Amino acid sequence: MSDASTNKLAADLRAKSAEDLDKELSGLYREQFNLRMQRGSGQDVKPHDFKRVRRQIARIKTILNEQTAASA
């Protein structure tokens, strides 16, 4: 993913409310769990999917922390 598309993704996430980010975060945790279960059961899982989900989780958590710090 290039820097321009990463910045666009982060800008889109910053425009969302905290409730929307929480919903998206729980969906990503569920996706991460499902990927681990698929790998554990021997299914063919692409390694880049783990990295993508991990980084999306980190982005959302960072934005939530920024919003919390700004409101405090």
Explain how this protein is built.
By secondary structure, the protein is mainly alpha-helical. The protein has a domain at about 1-40. The chain is built from 3 helices and no strands. It has helices spanning about 5-15, 20-40, 45-70.
List the helices and strands and how they pair.
Layout: H1 3-14, H2 18-40, H3 47-71
- Low-pLDDT runs of 5+ residues are none
Rg estimate, integer Å: 14 Å
Shape: elongated
Estimate percent helicity.
over 70%
Termini separation: 33 Å
The total of beta strands comes to: 0
Mean pLDDT: 91
Number of helices: 3
Q: Which sequence of SSEs, written as H and E, runs from N to C? A: HHH
The description of the largest β-sheet is: none
Percent in strands: under 5%
Structural class: mainly alpha
Annotation keywords:
mainly alpha; elongated
What is shown here, in short?
This protein is mainly alpha-helical. It contains three helices and no strands. It has a domain at 1-40.
